[in-house]
Amino acid sequence: MLFNINIAAGKVAAVADKAYHGIIKTPELKTEDRQLIDDITEARLELMRAKSLFNEMTVEKAIDYAGYNLMAAEARYSYLLQLAKERNVRF
Predict the structure, then answer these.
(1) pLDDT tens-digit profile of 23-44?
(2) Where are the domains of the chain?
(3) pTM higher than 0.90
(4) Each residue of 4-21: pLDDT tens digit?
């Protein structure tokens, strides 16, 4: 039997989230909202990596690639933040 760290981490996060909301007496986030928050967090990390990669490039073709990668990461992050704003998701 293989141990999958991602599945285990997801289960731990779900239990912790339930406990937190039970203690604090706040409503639990809907699954879609939780997924959106996770996507925003991932997109932010992706954007940070893209900026770092862009700043490290010195070869012209690599700079082009890094620039397109950076623009895509910025667009995704911006879109997800706008979606959260429209859905009134706070985090």
Answers:
(1) 666 666 668 999 999 999 999 9
(2) 5-87
(3) no
(4) 555 555 566 666 666 666
Please state the three-class secondary structure of the chain as a single string. CCCCHHHHHHHHHHHHHHHHHHHHCCCCCCHHHHHHHHHHHHHHHHHHHHHHHHHHCCCHHHHHHHHHHHHHHHHHHHHHHHHHHHHCCCC
| Residues listed for the chain | 91
Contact 70, 50 (CB under 8 A): yes
Residues contacting residue 36 through CB under 8 Å, at least 6 positions apart: 80, 83, 84, 87, 89
**What type of residue is 60?**
E
Residue 25 and residue 9: Cα distance in Å, rounded? 24
Residue with tokens 């911006």: 78
